[in-house]
Amino acid sequence: MDTSRDADQPLRTLGQVVGATLVLLLATVVFIMAISGSFRNYLQEWLGPWLLASAVAMGALSLWTLLDATDKLAGLKRDTHGHGSPKVAALLLLPALLFAVSAPASLGADAASSTAAKPKSTASDTIEFPPLPTDSVTEMSVQDFEDRYAFGDPKLLVGRPVRLLGFVAKQSTLPEGQWSVNRFRIYCCVADASLFTVPVEGVAKPEGDDVWVEVEGVINLDASKEHPVLTASKVKVIQQPEDPYL
């Protein structure tokens, strides 16, 4: 009879308890993020169902492992540090709850302020975009407005009122009196984020951190040869949208 193996059994079982608790911890965090929608701060929305499914699968497997390990501990004659596992689980649950409640915010002004606005494309060929009306305000994304300037004919934007939605930032490369309205675009997660930014003039920069706004105005081609500067006529502070990315 291998007595050393029997003596180590409680420790091995306790290791299963700790490992399963860690997996359950991760599953809890992912589940809360998927249900609350906070995962949109880091991932595209279409990944939500996959996150939820993975959280449920991890949670079920970890609970099954915990129940199995608990039965083993209850059946062992020797109880080597067996009473410590509930305390370990309780300590591991606390940081999971803290992370779920105070998870980092989406990419915003801090990230945009350290990113210079992209200069106008030097490509010789232009793209024909549908014309914009002159008698009404056209709502479009920051990316669409920037694309029309960079890849289309900028003169076709003159006198066309537009409304852009994004967060406020102040890049160090912008001249005095200008700030910017910005949106990040992610294709999968924040690791592949690209910044789209439009400088704004004519209205004072709204105060505060990570302020989201709707800006109405017209382009001023004389303000910059590289960037589509918007002369604003109206700035409205709004709540951050549920999906902060393009």
UniProtKB/TrEMBL annotation:
Regions that span the bilayer: 14-35, 47-67, 88-109
DUF1980 domain location: 158-245
UniProt keyword terms in alphabetical order: Membrane, Transmembrane, Transmembrane helix
Domain of life: Bacteria
Protein's UniProt keywords contain Transmembrane helix: yes
Signal peptide bounds: none
Annotated protein name in UniProt: TIGR03943 family protein
Organism of this sequence: Arachnia propionica
